[in-house]
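Hi C.,

You asked whether I'd gotten around to modeling the 451-residue construct. I have! Everything is below, sequence then structure, no commentary in between.
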Amino acid sequence: MAATNTPKSQQQLDRLSAALESGTFVDVKRMLNGLPPGDVAHLLESSTPRFRHILWKMVDLDNEGDIINELSDELRTHFLSDMDAAEVAQITEHLDDDDVADILQQLPEQVTREVLDAMDHQDRARLERVLHYPDDTAGGLMNTDTITIRARLTLDVVLRYLRRHEELPAMTDNLIVVNRDDRFVGLLPLGTLLVSDPSRTVREMMDTDVDPIPAYMPDDEVARLFERHDWVSAPVVDEEGRLLGRITIDDVVDVIREDADHSLTSMAGLEEDLDTFAPVFRTAQRRAIWLGINLVTAFVAAAVINLFQGTIEKVVALAVLMPIVASMGGIAGTQTLTVLVRGMAMGHVSRSNGAWLINRELGVGVLNGMLWATVVAVTAALWFDDRHIGLIIAAAMMINLVTAAFTGAALPLLLKRVNIDPALAGGVVLTTVTDVVGFVSFLGLATWFYG
């Protein structure tokens, strides 16, 4: 993911964009390779396909891996598709294992195998350990670059051991304590190591109250743990408690952003890795599927209206007013659905509190139904000089708002239980329900009264 730009980096990007527009490519190349990888990735994602191709050709080979790592999945795949296995192995040589795994998972299996074969034995073994786990689990997020120590050592020995390293792994805030079988024992914070008596042992000073993260824990649960405990890093273990690696906060931030993108784009039937500047045909093709699904639901609503064609012909006011009932139900249901999907994404919603939330939303639906049913009844009665049509639309509004509240609350819980993404499927089902119930209640009551 591209980093958020600071004012200074934004000024650099503005100057680079101006140089690119003016055609001074020598200056562009110099400025481009002087920017942080996240800023270059941001510039690539913000450029049209023609400029994007020109910019990528100007990136130095030494910077390609860091920049590829910051790109969205779709754009990353686009650039990787033009590379052979040797090139991919070369540009990923200095990246963390989890970042290399993310890149390789965008490639065909045959290419991935060729890239692994091009690596040395040690790097390949470490990377295969990460690739063993799905990319949406803790094992897929972890990095195997860790510093481990034994509990029997004194802090003085640990300090001398650390000084033998040229540098520590990025975001090292704790040293991981393991036993002889590499099973996780505890954590020794660097702050504790620096300020404590050097003669004390690791066993005396380490923190054993920290639970390691199981390798198969879903990445959204990992993100919630980091948020809840304000972690910078956390150890990852296998089923037997053996240390596999650690997860750092930079990877968790990517998970949080991806989940937010997923929730936002899924509501509109789009992919979370959507390229803003994707070609016309590819964009139209992706949107066509979702438009087709919505067309089916629109035909369902139209078929319901057709059932009451005779009543509509007798009372023209019904044709004017019926979109109000469906629209109000759709909005009320979407509000409830959004609250539930957000709560589920944050881990707030479970089976134990699901019934309470449904009852709460039903109460909200009843109160809003009473309020807006009264408003629309008075308005319709005065507009068409017919108090009966006011009562009919009030009753239909009340029915649809309560139905929308119940459906918006219960639907995501039901979809989640059958392993269907509520953010993706909830909106279509909810709209169909509120449209059908709104039309049936309004036109059905009108048919009963005027028929």
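If it helps when you're writing up: The longest helix spans residues 351-384.

Thanks,
B.
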